């Protein structure tokens, strides 16, 4: 076997599917390609059945990337397809298969493909593990997770939280750590004036940003409660909270909460999936990104904030505090409305935008795609 992989196949989400997973996988394969590897993606023909998908659409409205070899081949709910795909990959004999693992729902599909592909005694299976224990759990998750972990040779994790979860299932599994790289595909920062003009917002207003798909564990309700506290202290003048993202849970409960607390006018609801080309405008106008999560492993939103040099206020859950050094690039706070309100107040009192910018510029150098690729290569070499 080669000391380093020459042929790399990534099994996971990619175009025509939308979202952070697809963008991430495409950038990772580009990195391998730039390094001279023969790299491709095997993505889904069916990712989630329509009945199980909570959003409006799974598909991207952006143009197809022309610089990546993407094959639609994997049906997540068809066992005959899993067998056929696994046997085909076994015959193709890539040096390395990277599997993007983020939910136990995919375990039967991805695990079966991996079990079959690695039977050629050549291919090494190294997944990138977003989660081992899902944010929203079900009784069958443990069995499904064990099935998948039994089909791999090693793993890459992006937070200590995931490593701890992994140790409970597979303590002897060879692993490497690499932090979530930056999302450079969203372009460069524009001026606040340009961003406000594009989004039809007033440039003289201060904006806080809550960004991404909205699920219960992301704590939007905590931010609404915190805003009520700030409003009672008369600290919300000339400030608005932009909530930008599609709701995967009950939107109306948040709207009702805002109305009952009398803060509706301070929240700007952009309740749709933000396409890649528009992401830069939201982050370019934000004073601070707020992530009041109730649980988490790592978050792509944090890395987008680094890309656009925006300070962050995050809760001390999962791996968020590992990536956001407290009082250097933002604040790490308890997952309560009171603590969140205090951090927002402190941010504006101390001019956090100006104070944290230099440290953000330094810290973002840690999050490169080349570093992630090198961890895959290092683990591959160890596995022999």
Automatic annotation (TrEMBL):
Gene3D superfamilies: Glycogen Phosphorylase B. It holds the Pfam family Glycos_transf_1. InterPro entries: Glyco_trans_1. Keywords: Glycosyltransferase, Transferase. The keyword Glycosyltransferase applies. Residues 203-349 form the Glycosyl transferase family domain. Coiled coil: none annotated. GO terms for molecular function: glycosyltransferase activity. PANTHER family: D-INOSITOL 3-PHOSPHATE GLYCOSYLTRANSFERASE (PTHR12526:SF510), GLYCOSYLTRANSFERASE (PTHR12526). This is Glycosyltransferase involved in cell wall biosynthesis. It comes from Microbacter margulisiae.
């Amino acid at each position: 076997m080669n000391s380093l992989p020459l042929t790399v196949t990534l099994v996971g989400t990619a175009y025509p599917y939308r979202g952070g997973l697809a963008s991430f996988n495409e950038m990772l394969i580009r990195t391998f390609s730039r390094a001279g590897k023969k790299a491709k993606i095997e993505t889904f023909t069916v990712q989630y059945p329509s009945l199980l998908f909570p959003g409006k659409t799974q598909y991207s409205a952006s143009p197809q990337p022309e610089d990546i070899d993407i094959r639609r081949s994997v049906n997540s709910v068809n066992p005959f397809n899993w067998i056929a795909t696994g046997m085909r990959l076994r015959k193709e004999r890539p040096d390395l298969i990277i599997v993007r693992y983020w939910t136990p729902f995919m375990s039967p599909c991805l695990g079966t493909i991996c079990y079959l592909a690695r039977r050629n005694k050549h291919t090494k299976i190294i997944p990138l593990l977003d989660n081992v224990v899902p944010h929203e759990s079900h009784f069958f998750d443990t069995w499904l997770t064990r099935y998948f972990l039994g089909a791999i040779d090693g793993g890459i994790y992006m937070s200590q939280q995931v490593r701890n979860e992994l140790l409970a299932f597979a303590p002897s599994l060879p692993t490497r750590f690499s932090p979530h790289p930056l999302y450079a595909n969203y372009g460069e920062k524009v001026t606040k004036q340009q961003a406000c003009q594009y989004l039809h917002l007033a440039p003289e207003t201060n904006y806080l940003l809550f960004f991404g798909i909205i699920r219960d564990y992301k704590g939007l309700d905590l931010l609404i409660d915190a805003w009520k506290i700030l409003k009672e202290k008369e600290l919300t003048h000339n400030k608005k909270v932009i909530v930008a993202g599609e709701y995967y849970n009950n939107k109306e409960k948040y709207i009702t909460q805002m109305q009952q607390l009398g803060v509706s006018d301070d929240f700007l609801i952009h309740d749709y999936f933000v396409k890649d080309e528009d992401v830069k405008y939201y982050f370019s106008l934000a004073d601070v990104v707020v992530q009041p999560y109730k649980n988490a492993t790592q978050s792509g939103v944090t890395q987008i904030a680094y890309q656009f040099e925006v300070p962050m206020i995050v809760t001390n859950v999962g791996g968020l505090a590992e990536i956001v050094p407290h009082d250097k690039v933002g604040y790490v706070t308890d997952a309560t409305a009171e603590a969140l309100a205090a951090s927002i107040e402190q941010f504006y009192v101390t001019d956090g935008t100006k104070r944290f910018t230099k440290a953000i510029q330094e810290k973002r150098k840690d999050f490169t795609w080349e570093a992630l690729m090198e961890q895959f290569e290092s683990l591959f070499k160890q596995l022999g």
